[in-house]
Design brief:
alpha/beta; binds xanthosine-5'-monophosphate
Length: 180
């Protein structure tokens, strides 16, 4: 796997440090409403981020699972996003935090948030590990961002290329000749 990686963009130690900061930011925003928060990870890219982040949160929370499908090229964002399996719990009047791996054009999160909003949550906020600042739409509010990154295709720490490299522990740039 190592030979496919061009460079490390964000090393694992920085990710871990940032997780603790993010958890404090989340606790600060929710305050008294933290207890009973429902976390909805956007699968599968956010599995590692979510599992590390929630272990930094010192309050009772639940995980709500939903499955979406994205039709897109292996290294291109966008395409059609559809809900293929509905949430497994009721979020009406509950505070909900959606967790995703990366905000690129925002298409995926728009679909997820609009689906969740129909279910009447008390509040709906978003936490992304990465945001591609150059492409993220300015009208799209994300409350919690791990890192702003340049517009490069990244893998590792849950992010994939053709479903590979999710287990690489750092956020890394793939050698371009592998996907061009
Ligand atoms: P949108 O455009 O919907 O894109 O905000 C978000 C989704 O696109 C995928 N994506 C990436 N996946 N490395 C990846 O592994 C990347 O650099 C990348 N950029 C976008 C990802 O599925 C994300 O949720």
């Amino acid at each position: 796997m190592q030979q496919d990686i061009e460079r490390i963009l964000i090393p694992r130690s920085r990710i871990q440090d940032r997780l603790h900061e993010l958890a404090r930011e989340i606790e600060g925003v929710y305050g008294d409403q933290s207890e009973g928060l429902i976390i909805v990870p956007v699968l599968a890219g956010s599995i590692i981020f979510t599992s590390d982040l929630i272990r930094c949160l010192p309050f009772k929370m639940k995980i709500g699972l939903m499955t979406i499908s994205r039709y897109r090229g292996a290294t291109t964002a966008g395409g059609e996003t559809r809900l293929v399996q509905d949430l497994n719990l009721d979020i009406r009047d509950r505070h909900v935090l959606v967790v995703d791996d990366i905000l690129d054009t925002g298409g995926t999160l728009r679909v997820v948030l609009s689906q969740l909003a129909l279910r009447g949550p008390a509040s709906l906020r978003t936490c992304v590990l990465l945001r591609k600042l150059a492409k993220a739409p300015t009208d799209f509010q994300v409350e919690f961002v791990g890192f702003d990154i340049e517009d490069v295709f990244v893998v590792g720490y849950g992010l994939d290329y053709n479903n590979h490299y999710r287990n690489w522990p750092d956020i890394a740039v793939l050698r371009p000749e592998l996907y061009r």
